[in-house]
From TrEMBL:
Entry keyword annotation includes NAD: no
Repressor found in the keyword field: yes
PANTHER family the UniProt entry points to: HTH-TYPE TRANSCRIPTIONAL REGULATOR RUTR (PTHR30055), HTH-TYPE TRANSCRIPTIONAL REPRESSOR KSTR2 (PTHR30055:SF175)
Feature: DNA-binding region: 29-48
Coiled-coil segments on the chain, per record: none
Keywords on record: DNA-binding, Repressor, Transcription, Transcription regulation
Protein name in the entry: Regulatory protein TetR
Signal peptide (residue range): none
């Protein structure tokens, strides 16, 4: 961003998002954000009330986007194996397409004050519970075979972080191809052997 970039709540959020991801919330000052935008630090307060609200807003928007994408993916089928596949695709895609927001959500919850912290933790837990419910239903239906659905769901949720650690947009695979491959791995984690054939990296 340069001085020619109009300053708005959105541009402030985008600048803060990238700085929080690269140098942490505590390592970022409002002056740092202002420098990226080419304005004075006091000018930022015309658009956002505080750095704390800025962090919360970034996380809240990110969590709502992830939850909406998950529900949209699951709405297309009632088959539990296909739901797990689609949920994994949605999860991994969110990590790969929004790495800065995901980094903040994963590392900066400790920096939130109440009631912001409780709100974000609640949304994070709701996402995890949705994945766990799919695994539990698959086990109840005899489609999945795992000792502990909770542990299996944690492994599946962690796939996003795993992919984000090595994925590069200019690399061999697209984000969609990586997400599809990880979805196949998720079905193997839960011991599903009767899912429809979904070739990896399609």
């Amino acid at each position: 961003m340069t001085r020619s970039t109009p300053v708005s709540p959105q541009t402030v959020q985008h600048a803060a998002r990238d700085l929080f991801a690269s140098q942490g919330y505590r390592g970022t000052s409002m002056k740092d954000i202002a420098q990226v935008l080419g304005v004075s630090a006091p000018n930022l307060y015309n658009h956002v009330p505080s750095k704390q609200v800025l962090l919360y807003t970034i996380m809240d928007v990110a969590m709502d986007r992830a939850l909406d994408a998950l529900e949209a993916a699951l709405a297309g089928t009632a088959d539990v194996a296909e739901q797990l596949r689609l949920a994994t695709v949605a999860t991994v895609l969110d990590f790969l397409e929004n790495p800065a927001e995901v980094t903040s959500c994963n590392t900066e919850i400790r920096s939130l004050v109440e009631p912001y912290r409780t709100t974000i933790i609640g949304k994070r837990d709701a996402y995890g519970a949705r994945i766990r419910a799919i695994v539990e239903r698959g086990c109840a239906e005899g489609r999945f075979h795992v000792r502990d659905p909770r542990t299996a769901s944690y492994l599946i949720l962690e796939m996003g972080n795993s992919a984000k650690a090595w994925f590069r947009p200019a690399g061999t695979y697209t984000a969609r191809q990586v997400a599809e491959q990880y979805a196949d791995y998720a079905l193997r984690i839960v011991g599903c052997t009767d899912a429809a054939d979904h070739p990896a990296g399609r």
